[in-house]
Amino acid sequence: MHTSTMRRSARAGLALVASACLLASCQNPDSHPEEQTSAAAPESSAPHSATSAAPAETTEASAAENEGPHATAEGHVVVLSTGGTIASTHDKTGAVVPTVTGSKLVEPLSGTFDKDKLTLEVKDIAKLDSSAMTLDDTDTIIEAVNKELQRDDVDGVVVTHGTDSMEETAIAVDTFQDSDKPVALTGAMHPFDDPDPDGPDNLALAVKTVTDPSNKGRGTFIAFADHVIPARGAFKSDTTKADGFANNNGKKQPKRPKALKHQPLGNTRVDIIAAYPGAPADLIQRSLDSGAEGIVIEGMGAGNIGDELAQAAKAAAKKVPVVLTTRVDHGPVEGIYGGAGGGATLADAGVISSGTLRAPQARMLLAAAISTDTDPAELFPDAD
Hints:
Elements: H1 3-27, E1 44-49, E2 75-83, E3 88-90, E4 96-98, H2 102-106, E5 118-128, H3 135-149, E6 156-160, H4 166-175, E7 183-186, H5 199-211, E8 220-224, E9 227-230, E10 234-236, E11 245-247, E12 270-274, H6 282-289, E13 294-299, H7 307-316, E14 322-326, H8 343-348, E15 352-353, H9 359-372
Parallel strand pairs: 2-5, 2-6, 6-7, 7-8, 12-13, 13-14, 14-15
Antiparallel strand pairs: 1-5, 3-4, 8-9, 10-11
Helix pairs in contact: 4-9, 6-7
Protein backbone atom coordinates (compact mmCIF):
# COMPACT_ATOMS: atom_id res chain seq x y z
CA MET A 1 0.00 0.00 0.00
CA HIS A 2 1.28 3.46 -0.89
CA THR A 3 2.18 5.79 1.99
CA SER A 4 -0.44 8.37 0.94
CA THR A 5 -3.12 5.64 0.89
CA MET A 6 -2.08 4.46 4.37
CA ARG A 7 -2.29 8.04 5.63
CA ARG A 8 -5.76 8.49 4.20
CA SER A 9 -6.94 5.16 5.64
CA ALA A 10 -5.61 6.10 9.06
CA ARG A 11 -7.21 9.50 8.82
CA ALA A 12 -10.51 7.94 7.80
CA GLY A 13 -10.36 5.84 10.96
CA LEU A 14 -9.69 8.91 13.07
CA ALA A 15 -12.59 10.67 11.38
CA LEU A 16 -14.95 7.80 12.29
CA VAL A 17 -13.84 7.92 15.92
CA ALA A 18 -14.21 11.70 15.96
CA SER A 19 -17.67 11.48 14.43
CA ALA A 20 -18.73 8.96 17.07
CA CYS A 21 -17.44 11.26 19.81
CA LEU A 22 -19.23 14.22 18.25
CA LEU A 23 -22.51 12.28 18.14
CA ALA A 24 -22.14 11.31 21.79
CA SER A 25 -21.50 14.91 22.81
CA CYS A 26 -24.53 16.10 20.83
CA GLN A 27 -26.69 13.66 22.83
CA ASN A 28 -25.37 15.16 26.07
CA PRO A 29 -26.21 18.89 26.10
CA ASP A 30 -23.95 19.52 29.07
CA SER A 31 -20.89 18.33 27.21
CA HIS A 32 -21.33 20.30 23.98
CA PRO A 33 -21.44 24.10 23.66
CA GLU A 34 -24.08 25.81 21.59
CA GLU A 35 -23.52 25.66 17.83
CA GLN A 36 -21.94 28.82 16.44
CA THR A 37 -24.00 28.82 13.25
CA SER A 38 -25.97 31.91 12.39
CA ALA A 39 -29.37 31.16 10.93
CA ALA A 40 -29.76 34.82 10.02
CA ALA A 41 -26.63 34.91 7.88
CA PRO A 42 -27.28 35.11 4.12
CA GLU A 43 -24.57 32.50 3.57
CA SER A 44 -24.36 29.17 5.38
CA SER A 45 -21.76 29.72 8.08
CA ALA A 46 -20.53 27.14 10.57
CA PRO A 47 -17.32 27.49 12.60
CA HIS A 48 -15.52 24.19 13.16
CA SER A 49 -12.74 23.16 15.48
CA ALA A 50 -9.86 21.52 13.71
CA THR A 51 -6.41 20.04 13.99
CA SER A 52 -3.10 21.16 12.62
CA ALA A 53 -0.17 20.18 10.54
CA ALA A 54 3.16 21.82 9.90
CA PRO A 55 3.41 24.68 7.39
CA ALA A 56 3.95 23.87 3.75
CA GLU A 57 6.61 25.32 1.48
CA THR A 58 5.38 28.17 -0.68
CA THR A 59 6.58 27.12 -4.08
CA GLU A 60 6.39 23.35 -4.39
CA ALA A 61 6.89 21.45 -1.17
CA SER A 62 5.93 18.07 0.20
CA ALA A 63 3.58 18.04 3.16
CA ALA A 64 4.22 14.39 3.96
CA GLU A 65 6.83 15.20 6.58
CA ASN A 66 4.33 17.45 8.34
CA GLU A 67 1.65 14.78 8.81
CA GLY A 68 0.38 13.80 12.20
CA PRO A 69 -2.49 14.71 14.50
CA HIS A 70 -2.37 17.95 16.44
CA ALA A 71 0.53 19.51 14.58
CA THR A 72 0.88 23.27 14.60
CA ALA A 73 -1.69 25.39 12.77
CA GLU A 74 -3.09 28.36 14.61
CA GLY A 75 -5.62 31.03 13.84
CA HIS A 76 -9.03 31.56 12.29
CA VAL A 77 -9.52 30.22 8.76
CA VAL A 78 -12.60 30.72 6.60
CA VAL A 79 -13.37 27.85 4.22
CA LEU A 80 -15.50 28.88 1.23
CA SER A 81 -17.15 25.90 -0.43
CA THR A 82 -18.00 26.25 -4.13
CA GLY A 83 -18.63 22.67 -5.25
CA GLY A 84 -16.40 20.60 -7.51
CA THR A 85 -15.36 16.96 -7.23
CA ILE A 86 -14.28 17.45 -3.61
CA ALA A 87 -17.93 18.18 -2.75
CA SER A 88 -19.47 15.64 -5.13
CA THR A 89 -21.06 12.22 -4.76
CA HIS A 90 -22.36 9.63 -7.20
CA ASP A 91 -26.03 9.88 -8.09
CA LYS A 92 -28.22 6.86 -8.89
CA THR A 93 -26.93 6.80 -12.48
CA GLY A 94 -23.30 6.80 -11.33
CA ALA A 95 -22.66 10.39 -12.42
CA VAL A 96 -20.65 12.63 -10.09
CA VAL A 97 -22.50 15.78 -9.02
CA PRO A 98 -21.86 18.45 -6.33
CA THR A 99 -24.02 17.65 -3.27
CA VAL A 100 -21.86 18.02 -0.15
CA THR A 101 -21.90 21.06 2.13
CA GLY A 102 -18.76 22.75 3.37
CA SER A 103 -19.51 21.64 6.92
CA LYS A 104 -19.41 18.01 5.79
CA LEU A 105 -16.14 18.63 3.93
CA VAL A 106 -14.32 19.73 7.07
CA GLU A 107 -15.63 16.91 9.30
CA PRO A 108 -12.77 14.54 8.33
CA LEU A 109 -10.32 17.14 9.68
CA SER A 110 -11.69 16.82 13.21
CA GLY A 111 -8.78 14.58 14.21
CA THR A 112 -6.12 16.53 12.34
CA PHE A 113 -5.98 19.95 14.01
CA ASP A 114 -5.97 21.17 17.61
CA LYS A 115 -9.40 22.70 18.26
CA ASP A 116 -7.96 24.96 20.93
CA LYS A 117 -5.58 26.58 18.43
CA LEU A 118 -7.47 26.59 15.14
CA THR A 119 -11.01 27.54 14.17
CA LEU A 120 -12.47 26.66 10.79
CA GLU A 121 -15.44 28.77 9.77
CA VAL A 122 -17.31 27.33 6.81
CA LYS A 123 -19.46 29.15 4.27
CA ASP A 124 -21.25 27.63 1.30
CA ILE A 125 -21.30 30.10 -1.57
CA ALA A 126 -21.97 27.76 -4.53
CA LYS A 127 -22.36 24.16 -5.66
CA LEU A 128 -20.75 24.31 -9.08
CA ASP A 129 -19.20 22.03 -11.60
CA SER A 130 -16.18 24.23 -12.33
CA SER A 131 -16.29 23.43 -16.06
CA ALA A 132 -19.67 25.19 -16.12
CA MET A 133 -18.46 28.32 -14.33
CA THR A 134 -18.97 31.75 -15.82
CA LEU A 135 -17.12 34.98 -15.12
CA ASP A 136 -20.11 35.97 -12.99
CA ASP A 137 -19.33 32.96 -10.79
CA THR A 138 -15.69 34.02 -10.66
CA ASP A 139 -16.80 37.47 -9.51
CA THR A 140 -18.84 35.90 -6.72
CA ILE A 141 -15.80 34.00 -5.43
CA ILE A 142 -13.49 37.02 -5.67
CA GLU A 143 -15.96 39.17 -3.73
CA ALA A 144 -16.46 36.48 -1.07
CA VAL A 145 -12.70 36.01 -0.59
CA ASN A 146 -12.03 39.73 -0.33
CA LYS A 147 -14.87 40.17 2.16
CA GLU A 148 -13.35 37.56 4.48
CA LEU A 149 -9.82 38.91 4.09
CA GLN A 150 -10.99 42.30 5.33
CA ARG A 151 -12.07 40.83 8.68
CA ASP A 152 -9.65 41.48 11.54
CA ASP A 153 -10.35 38.07 13.09
CA VAL A 154 -9.49 36.07 9.95
CA ASP A 155 -5.95 34.84 9.26
CA GLY A 156 -6.46 33.17 5.89
CA VAL A 157 -9.04 31.87 3.42
CA VAL A 158 -9.40 28.45 1.78
CA VAL A 159 -11.59 27.96 -1.30
CA THR A 160 -12.72 24.45 -2.19
CA HIS A 161 -13.19 24.34 -5.94
CA GLY A 162 -13.49 22.05 -8.93
CA THR A 163 -10.22 21.24 -10.66
CA ASP A 164 -11.32 21.96 -14.25
CA SER A 165 -11.05 25.73 -13.89
CA MET A 166 -9.20 26.06 -10.58
CA GLU A 167 -6.19 27.71 -12.23
CA GLU A 168 -8.40 30.49 -13.65
CA THR A 169 -10.12 31.25 -10.36
CA ALA A 170 -6.79 31.12 -8.50
CA ILE A 171 -5.15 33.76 -10.66
CA ALA A 172 -8.31 35.89 -10.67
CA VAL A 173 -8.39 35.90 -6.86
CA ASP A 174 -4.64 36.63 -6.77
CA THR A 175 -5.03 39.56 -9.19
CA PHE A 176 -7.63 41.29 -6.99
CA GLN A 177 -6.14 40.24 -3.64
CA ASP A 178 -5.25 43.44 -1.78
CA SER A 179 -4.30 41.72 1.48
CA ASP A 180 -1.21 40.06 2.97
CA LYS A 181 -3.32 37.20 4.28
CA PRO A 182 -2.80 33.98 2.29
CA VAL A 183 -5.48 32.33 0.18
CA ALA A 184 -5.38 28.71 -0.98
CA LEU A 185 -7.59 26.90 -3.47
CA THR A 186 -7.93 23.16 -3.22
CA GLY A 187 -10.11 20.36 -4.51
CA ALA A 188 -10.00 16.68 -5.29
CA MET A 189 -9.60 14.19 -8.10
CA HIS A 190 -11.78 11.63 -6.31
CA PRO A 191 -15.32 12.45 -5.13
CA PHE A 192 -16.40 12.72 -1.51
CA ASP A 193 -17.95 9.22 -1.45
CA ASP A 194 -14.97 7.51 -3.12
CA PRO A 195 -13.49 4.64 -1.06
CA ASP A 196 -10.16 6.49 -1.09
CA PRO A 197 -10.97 10.23 -1.27
CA ASP A 198 -8.13 12.71 -1.63
CA GLY A 199 -10.19 15.73 -0.61
CA PRO A 200 -9.51 15.57 3.16
CA ASP A 201 -5.72 15.51 2.68
CA ASN A 202 -5.87 18.36 0.18
CA LEU A 203 -8.12 20.43 2.43
CA ALA A 204 -5.78 19.87 5.39
CA LEU A 205 -2.85 21.01 3.24
CA ALA A 206 -4.73 24.17 2.24
CA VAL A 207 -5.40 24.97 5.89
CA LYS A 208 -1.71 24.52 6.70
CA THR A 209 -0.82 26.79 3.81
CA VAL A 210 -2.93 29.74 4.89
CA THR A 211 -1.83 29.46 8.53
CA ASP A 212 1.87 29.38 7.65
CA PRO A 213 3.27 32.82 8.60
CA SER A 214 5.88 32.61 5.84
CA ASN A 215 3.10 32.78 3.23
CA LYS A 216 1.98 36.25 4.27
CA GLY A 217 2.16 38.69 1.39
CA ARG A 218 2.66 35.94 -1.18
CA GLY A 219 -0.82 35.89 -2.61
CA THR A 220 -2.93 32.94 -3.65
CA PHE A 221 -1.85 29.31 -3.89
CA ILE A 222 -3.11 25.98 -5.13
CA ALA A 223 -2.66 23.31 -2.44
CA PHE A 224 -2.97 19.86 -3.93
CA ALA A 225 -1.53 16.37 -3.46
CA ASP A 226 1.28 17.32 -1.04
CA HIS A 227 2.32 20.30 -3.18
CA VAL A 228 1.74 24.02 -2.71
CA ILE A 229 2.27 26.15 -5.79
CA PRO A 230 1.70 29.86 -6.53
CA ALA A 231 -1.44 30.70 -8.47
CA ARG A 232 0.52 32.44 -11.23
CA GLY A 233 1.79 29.83 -13.65
CA ALA A 234 -0.24 26.95 -12.23
CA PHE A 235 -2.13 24.63 -14.57
CA LYS A 236 -3.95 21.31 -14.47
CA SER A 237 -1.46 18.81 -15.85
CA ASP A 238 -3.26 15.47 -15.68
CA THR A 239 -6.87 14.35 -16.06
CA THR A 240 -6.70 11.36 -13.71
CA LYS A 241 -3.68 11.45 -11.38
CA ALA A 242 -4.16 12.61 -7.80
CA ASP A 243 -1.20 14.94 -8.33
CA GLY A 244 -3.12 16.83 -10.99
CA PHE A 245 -1.49 20.28 -10.98
CA ALA A 246 1.86 21.59 -12.16
CA ASN A 247 3.76 24.83 -11.90
CA ASN A 248 5.39 26.65 -14.81
CA ASN A 249 7.78 28.63 -12.62
CA GLY A 250 9.95 25.86 -11.20
CA LYS A 251 11.39 26.96 -7.84
CA LYS A 252 11.13 30.62 -8.79
CA GLN A 253 8.55 32.77 -7.03
CA PRO A 254 6.63 34.55 -9.83
CA LYS A 255 6.34 38.33 -9.93
CA ARG A 256 2.96 39.56 -8.72
CA PRO A 257 1.68 42.86 -10.12
CA LYS A 258 0.11 45.37 -7.76
CA ALA A 259 -3.38 44.24 -6.80
CA LEU A 260 -6.23 45.68 -8.82
CA LYS A 261 -9.43 47.00 -7.30
CA HIS A 262 -12.08 44.48 -8.25
CA GLN A 263 -14.41 45.36 -11.05
CA PRO A 264 -16.94 42.81 -12.36
CA LEU A 265 -15.56 40.51 -15.05
CA GLY A 266 -18.90 39.05 -16.05
CA ASN A 267 -19.59 41.33 -19.00
CA THR A 268 -16.07 41.11 -20.43
CA ARG A 269 -15.56 38.82 -23.39
CA VAL A 270 -12.07 37.52 -24.12
CA ASP A 271 -11.73 34.66 -26.60
CA ILE A 272 -9.02 32.02 -26.85
CA ILE A 273 -7.99 31.03 -30.37
CA ALA A 274 -5.84 27.98 -30.93
CA ALA A 275 -3.17 28.29 -33.61
CA TYR A 276 -2.31 25.30 -35.77
CA PRO A 277 -0.59 24.80 -39.11
CA GLY A 278 -2.77 26.47 -41.72
CA ALA A 279 -5.09 28.22 -39.24
CA PRO A 280 -7.13 30.80 -41.21
CA ALA A 281 -7.34 34.51 -40.49
CA ASP A 282 -11.11 34.48 -40.12
CA LEU A 283 -10.82 32.74 -36.74
CA ILE A 284 -9.79 36.09 -35.28
CA GLN A 285 -12.13 38.19 -37.39
CA ARG A 286 -15.17 36.10 -36.43
CA SER A 287 -14.27 36.48 -32.78
CA LEU A 288 -14.06 40.26 -33.11
CA ASP A 289 -17.31 40.36 -35.07
CA SER A 290 -18.97 38.45 -32.21
CA GLY A 291 -17.97 41.07 -29.66
CA ALA A 292 -14.63 39.94 -28.26
CA GLU A 293 -12.88 42.78 -26.39
CA GLY A 294 -9.59 40.92 -26.26
CA ILE A 295 -7.94 37.92 -27.89
CA VAL A 296 -5.63 35.26 -26.49
CA ILE A 297 -3.83 33.23 -29.16
CA GLU A 298 -2.53 29.84 -28.11
CA GLY A 299 0.50 29.58 -30.36
CA MET A 300 2.99 26.85 -31.10
CA GLY A 301 6.48 26.35 -29.69
CA ALA A 302 7.91 29.41 -27.95
CA GLY A 303 5.05 31.52 -29.31
CA ASN A 304 4.70 31.30 -33.07
CA ILE A 305 1.75 31.15 -35.46
CA GLY A 306 1.17 30.73 -39.19
CA ASP A 307 1.41 33.60 -41.68
CA GLU A 308 -2.31 34.03 -42.35
CA LEU A 309 -3.31 34.01 -38.69
CA ALA A 310 -0.41 36.35 -37.93
CA GLN A 311 -1.67 38.98 -40.36
CA ALA A 312 -5.06 38.91 -38.65
CA ALA A 313 -3.43 39.05 -35.19
CA LYS A 314 -1.39 42.12 -36.09
CA ALA A 315 -4.47 43.85 -37.48
CA ALA A 316 -6.50 42.92 -34.40
CA ALA A 317 -3.81 44.29 -32.06
CA LYS A 318 -4.56 47.76 -33.44
CA LYS A 319 -8.15 47.48 -32.17
CA VAL A 320 -8.11 45.27 -29.05
CA PRO A 321 -5.40 43.82 -26.79
CA VAL A 322 -3.97 40.56 -28.12
CA VAL A 323 -1.95 38.19 -25.92
CA LEU A 324 0.22 35.38 -27.28
CA THR A 325 0.75 32.18 -25.31
CA THR A 326 1.65 28.62 -26.25
CA ARG A 327 0.14 25.17 -26.27
CA VAL A 328 3.35 23.75 -24.79
CA ASP A 329 3.06 22.93 -21.09
CA HIS A 330 6.37 24.27 -19.79
CA GLY A 331 8.67 27.15 -20.62
CA PRO A 332 8.19 30.86 -21.32
CA VAL A 333 6.75 32.48 -24.41
CA GLU A 334 9.67 34.26 -26.05
CA GLY A 335 9.90 36.51 -29.09
CA ILE A 336 12.80 34.70 -30.72
CA TYR A 337 11.74 34.01 -34.29
CA GLY A 338 11.19 36.42 -37.14
CA GLY A 339 9.04 35.82 -40.18
CA ALA A 340 5.39 36.78 -40.52
CA GLY A 341 4.18 34.67 -37.58
CA GLY A 342 7.30 34.59 -35.43
CA GLY A 343 7.12 35.75 -31.82
CA ALA A 344 9.55 38.61 -32.42
CA THR A 345 7.52 39.93 -35.34
CA LEU A 346 4.27 39.72 -33.39
CA ALA A 347 5.81 41.54 -30.41
CA ASP A 348 6.90 44.36 -32.70
CA ALA A 349 3.28 44.63 -33.85
CA GLY A 350 2.02 45.12 -30.28
CA VAL A 351 1.05 41.55 -29.43
CA ILE A 352 1.70 40.93 -25.72
CA SER A 353 3.65 37.88 -24.55
CA SER A 354 2.06 35.87 -21.73
CA GLY A 355 5.43 34.89 -20.28
CA THR A 356 4.95 31.72 -18.22
CA LEU A 357 1.16 31.85 -18.23
CA ARG A 358 -0.92 29.61 -20.42
CA ALA A 359 -4.13 30.46 -22.26
CA PRO A 360 -6.69 29.99 -19.44
CA GLN A 361 -4.80 32.26 -17.03
CA ALA A 362 -3.85 34.73 -19.75
CA ARG A 363 -7.53 35.08 -20.64
CA MET A 364 -8.41 35.81 -17.02
CA LEU A 365 -5.72 38.48 -16.71
CA LEU A 366 -6.76 40.11 -19.97
CA ALA A 367 -10.38 40.22 -18.78
CA ALA A 368 -9.18 41.83 -15.53
CA ALA A 369 -7.17 44.43 -17.45
CA ILE A 370 -10.11 45.31 -19.68
CA SER A 371 -12.62 45.51 -16.85
CA THR A 372 -10.37 47.80 -14.78
CA ASP A 373 -9.02 49.85 -17.69
CA THR A 374 -5.48 48.68 -16.91
CA ASP A 375 -2.66 48.39 -19.42
CA PRO A 376 -2.62 44.61 -20.07
CA ALA A 377 1.17 44.54 -20.28
CA GLU A 378 1.31 45.49 -16.58
CA LEU A 379 -0.34 42.18 -15.65
CA PHE A 380 2.28 40.07 -17.45
CA PRO A 381 5.50 41.09 -15.67
CA ASP A 382 7.12 37.69 -16.24
CA ALA A 383 7.19 38.54 -19.93
CA ASP A 384 9.53 41.50 -19.37
